[in-house]
What we know:
six-stranded antiparallel β-sheet, CATH 3.30.1330.130, CATH 3.30.1330.80, binds zinc ion, alpha+beta
Amino acid sequence: MKLLKLYAALLFIAxxxxxxxxxxxxxxxxxxxxxxxxxxxxxxxxWLDTLPDKSHLFGIGPYDRMKGEIMVFNGKxxxxxxxxxxxxxxxxxxxxxxxxxxxxxVSEWEAFELSGDITALEDIQNKVATIAQKNGYDTKEPxxxxxxxxxxxxxTHIVTPRSADVEGYREDFKxxxxxxxxxxxxLLGFYSEKHQGIFTSSKxxxxxxxxxxxxxxxxxxxxxxxAVKALTLFLPVRxxxxxxGFRVNDTDFSKGRLGNIQKVELNDLAxxxxxxxxxxxxxxxxxxxxxxxxxxxxxxxxxxxxxVSKPSPCLTDAAVYxxxxxxxxxxxxxxxxxxGLFTVQxxxxxxxxxxxxxxGVKPESINLLGTKAIKGELNSCxxxxxxxxxxxxxxxxxxxxxxxxxxxxxxTDFEWxxxxxxxFVKTDILNKDARKCSQ
Length: 439
Ligand SMILES: [Zn+2]
Ligand SMILES: [Zn+2]
């Protein structure tokens, strides 16, 4: 029995880790905080080796208990120290720790032209914000950036240990300054308007580290003065977001005529359903694909549509809400006897389609854990882990071309065969009394 439990726990950890690999490109994560580290004698808060996804990782922070600086650049972990006067050394290892660290995985960057001179860090901040805004980035959310090329003049520092119990401590030294003229390399920065004291100083929206192109020097950028002739700014390629929502056509009052056209969004559906979950996103997107084939003009006639749904609570809510189908008017029923999520019919011309989710789209781990949750086999923390996996999956669905998620096929031999059955299990309320993970 104990062994079984251990196996279940290991399986759970394995599944969660696996999903951890699907990080959203450019999403910024933080551990620890700049304004907290002095209060607890610069104790380290993260061991970089434990970060789940090191591919295309970019990050900055102090090295260990202020032994220097860290910059992870495209999955390469650089750390620099300046423990001896006038000297600095750079190494590479994942076996390093940091009292605060800000990082993001970015697999694709987009290049932007910089213009005008840069005479201060604020110029970098302003130019990056302006270019980001102009190109549709949400500057209210944190994001990483790179500036690569040649710099006329840079002032950098590497911090040094602050207490005698840390190797390399020298009284009255907090950092060593290093100046560069006509150097070339990469600046890695993180921009945020809401992380002052966390990973930017109280007066700035950016924190920037510099890595020389020969990788022999790395440090924190304090001052800059340069023309931008030979510099390029890079921002993470933004995840595509696909349009969701329908236009629907209904009657205009209790005895009214067709022609009341309204927009129905995913959030409206979430209110009917009770929460936004991956199943609801699947149902919404699947019906979007199916209904656009029945109504090529994009306006769904909810008085002219009937639907057969699989029994999941999410899918059935999506079905009745979006199509207007109702059992009592012979326009909705539930069946498990077909291959797909929904079968949808346009009543006036009889055209019928079935929509299926493609193999391999949904992570098998979510199904496995979902089955366990239904059997009451997940504890409260495991339930929260499952929720995080489902949320990740929802986000991924909304960033993926629905044509690659679903297949819609026309049915020529479809028979409308409404069954009334009321013993399906409403699986999304089975764990309603489970405690919070932290309790
Ligand atoms: Zn720094
Ligand atoms: Zn749901």
